[in-house]
Design brief:
By secondary structure, the chain is of the alpha+beta class. Helices cover 40% and strands 26% of the residues. It is built from 10 helices and 13 strands. The longest helix has 28 residues, at 60-87.
Length: 308
Amino acid sequence: MHNADELLAFADVMESGSLTLSARRLGVAKSTLSRRLQQLETRLGQPLMRRQSNRLEPTEAGRVYHDYCLRLIALADKGRQALDELREEISGELTLEVHEALARSWVGPALDEFMARHPGLTLNLATRERLPHGAAGTSVVVWYGEVGETALRHEPVARLSRGLYAHPDYLARHGTPQHPRDLDDHAWIDLLGEATRGLVLRHARQGEYDVCPPGSRLRVDRLLLHADAIARGQGLGILPEWMAERRRSAHPDQLVRCLPEWQAPAMPVSLLYPHGHRPRKVSALLEFLRQSRPSGWPTSLDACPADA
């Protein structure tokens, strides 16, 4: 069994080359430090240091053991840190930045339970339309859409399948499309320029079909505005199936799924947070978000159709 005091003594003397200097830095008597080094050498069965001129120099065994010694000290520090976190109260401030598409539909309502569990926390909740390049150590980002390159740690949560929807009155006036090629004759509600870039719909047996919707007279930058416009009969649009089904359960006469066997590319949902050690309150928030995923989401990343 390794003795922490002996390891610290050896590591410090390796750095300083002096019993006197290391004893002063460690706050122990020189004789105590010397005894700890001797005990470690006895335990290992080999000399680790030898005196050369006015310095202590490592033997070959000392050089070999030094790297392992530093690893053991670091591991012990991590162990103490983990135990300290268990005593750490989940309190203080947290910042949660959420893509607007998920703020009201998932994260906002779910946070009521998290706040009730941890009355000592103050939470700053902000919506975002653009992904931040970085985040503070007490910040978490919930993102809807492709992430791309980021300095943050990226944890995929789900891939949400999407479909084509319209209001029943709109379909009564303009007809129900039977194939993606029929979409050329319909009004289109564009979200964040997706229609401008082009859209691919996929069918399990018929493969892919490139859709080039006509110019959209209504373009929106928020998913909830997009869903509202479709529900008002302004035209056709692509929505996450999970969001559309929630709306249909509350208002059955607002949305109708069009071309139900055709799907738009699934949209990823991700958690992003800084690399490295996380305060316990950040870990608690991340775990809560993982556990509070909406029931309509797929249970694994493989449950949604692949985009490839």
